[in-house]
Design goal:
Its main location: cytoplasm. One of its GO terms (biological process) is regulation of DNA-templated transcription. This is Regulatory protein VirG. GO terms for molecular function: phosphorelay response regulator activity; transcription cis-regulatory region binding. One of its GO terms (cellular component) is cytosol. The chain is of the alpha/beta class. It has two domains: about 120 residues, Rossmann fold (3-Layer(aba) Sandwich); about 100 residues, Winged helix-like DNA-binding domain superfamily/Winged helix DNA-binding domain (Arc Repressor Mutant, subunit A, Orthogonal Bundle), CATH 1.10.10.10. It contains ten helices and 13 strands. The strands form three sheets. The chain has a five-stranded parallel β-sheet, with helices on both faces. A five-stranded antiparallel β-sheet has the order 9-8-7-6-13, with no helix packed on it. A three-stranded antiparallel β-sheet has the order 10-12-11. Helix 5 runs parallel beside helix 9, helix 7 crosses helix 8 and helix 7 crosses helix 9. The protein is globular, with a radius of gyration of 18 Å. It starts with a helix and ends with a strand.
């Protein structure tokens, strides 16, 4: 039987629609059965065309995506999906567990990354954490509907960032979580460990380099509208600081 804490965690994401994309039918069956027993509606696909057919039937709340797929691979799929509006969160799975592979996946916009073979319970914990963060972003959280800083406007409900010129800047889920972590704690030095926890949750086993990569990407996007490196300042041997004053709206 589920304990009280586990039951509460299940209820938080109950009914979420999850798409499992993996060309191994055994893994698809094990994962879909396990997640299904914990209250999730799981659909499966063996490759990109099957995935597209599932998505045509309606939006999903989360995609669990294998890197090594026939035809269009998982990294290419991740890159394509995360550049679209209202992209679902993505957890990537890969038999390649090297740091460089994980960095590439996170840099492309994946919300989390697990090396295969993984324990289904660990995947379940990651699914819960990613869905919880997505729900917090949708509901607006502590900041309310949004905030303004240095001429920029961040809408936490629509997950929309507008530059001082009024141009919408597309953010991956990971970049959005990181920017939110900064604007909730402006003008404070945040270590990499703190940013990992604020942006990805206390259960994340991501690493310092992943934060550096996403900060670099976020700075480039802010630079396009002016002031990216000034807004996110590197504090030598300590971490990073979001320098702008934030007005909650």
């Amino acid at each position: 039987m589920l304990g009280a804490m586990e039951l509460a965690a299940d209820m938080a994401g109950a009914g979420a629609r999850i798409l499992m994309v993996d060309d191994d039918p055994g893994i698809r069956d094990v994962v879909s059965d396990f997640l299904g027993r914990h209250g999730y509606k799981v659909e499966t696909a063996a490759d990109a065309p099957e995935m597209e057919r599932v998505l045509e039937r309606g939006p999903v709340d989360l995609i669990v995506l294998d890197v090594m797929l026939p035809g269009e691979d998982g990294l290419a799929i991740c890159r394509r999906l995360t550049t679209a509006d209202n992209a679902p969160p993505i957890i990537m799975l890969s038999a390649m567990g090297e740091d460089t592979d994980r960095i590439v996946g996170l840099e492309l916009g994946a919300d989390d990354y697990l090396a295969k073979p993984c324990n289904p319970r660990e995947l379940l914990a990651r699914v819960r954490a990613v869905l919880r963060r997505a729900e917090q972003r949708t509901n607006g959280g502590a900041l309310g509907a949004g905030c303004e800083f240095a001429g920029w406007r961040l809408d936490l409900v629509r997950r929309e960032l507008r530059s001082p010129q009024g141009v919408v800047v597309n953010l991956s889920s990971g970049e959005f979580s990181l920017l939110r972590a900064f604007v909730e704690r402006p003008q404070r030095v945040l270590t990499r460990d703190q940013l990992l926890e604020f942006a990805r949750g206390p259960d994340s086993d991501a690493f310092d380099r992943a934060i550096d990569v996403q900060i670099s990407r976020l700075r480039r996007k802010l630079d396009d509208g002016g002031g990216g490196h000034d807004l996110i300042r590197t504090i030598r041997n300590e971490g990073y600081m979001f320098t702008a004053k934030v007005k909650r709206t």
